[in-house]
Design brief:
Elements: H1 3-13, E1 18-20, H2 21-28, H3 32-40, E2 47-48, E3 55-58, H4 59-73, H5 78-102, E4 105-110, E5 113-120, E6 127-134, E7 137-144
Antiparallel strand pairs: 1-3, 2-3, 4-5, 5-6, 6-7
């Protein structure tokens, strides 16, 4: 795997990506006062700077906010939206684990075309799975692994 792909994988899997409360409000369309209330109730968590002034949120928390808001928009109460978000969070963790473990390489093969190496097959390690993205279509394929792996 090339060094940039490895850095991106580690960054996605880590909790190092952070956004400010005002950015969180702008991106998720949830007011800062609502975010503060949710944080006070323990529904979401932020990290604060040295002066305990500015709140910063990780990428997983941004997904939490999006999900809670979506359930609220569907008519659920805040308590029920948070409960449903907790269940949904498991799916997010599974997805992040997949990205961190299985995306070995991403490369561009043409204009709006690319390939994502998803690594070796568990049952047949001499073969690997890869996705081909060709404009608007994605397809999965299997091939024999090369010696560089």
């Amino acid at each position: 795997m090339d060094p940039l792909s490895e850095k991106i994988r580690k960054l996605i899997a880590s909790k190092e990506l952070k956004i400010s409360m005002s950015e969180m409000a702008r991106v998720t369309d949830v007011s800062t006062s609502q975010l503060r209330y949710w944080e006070k109730k323990g529904y979401i968590k932020s990290e604060q700077d040295e002066q305990n002034k500015n709140h910063y949120f990780t990428l997983p928390v941004m997904f939490q906010v999006f999900t809670i808001k979506d359930f609220l928009d569907q008519g659920y109460t805040l308590a029920m939206a948070v409960k449903k978000e907790h269940k949904r969070r498991e799916l997010h963790q599974i997805f992040i684990r997949f990205i961190a473990d299985c995306i070995m390489e991403v490369k561009q093969t043409g204009e709006k075309k690319g390939e994502i190496n998803l690594g070796p097959l568990a049952e047949e390690p001499t073969k690997e799975v890869y996705a081909v993205i060709d404009g608007q279509q994605t397809s999965l394929h299997i091939r024999t692994r090369t010696m560089k792996d």
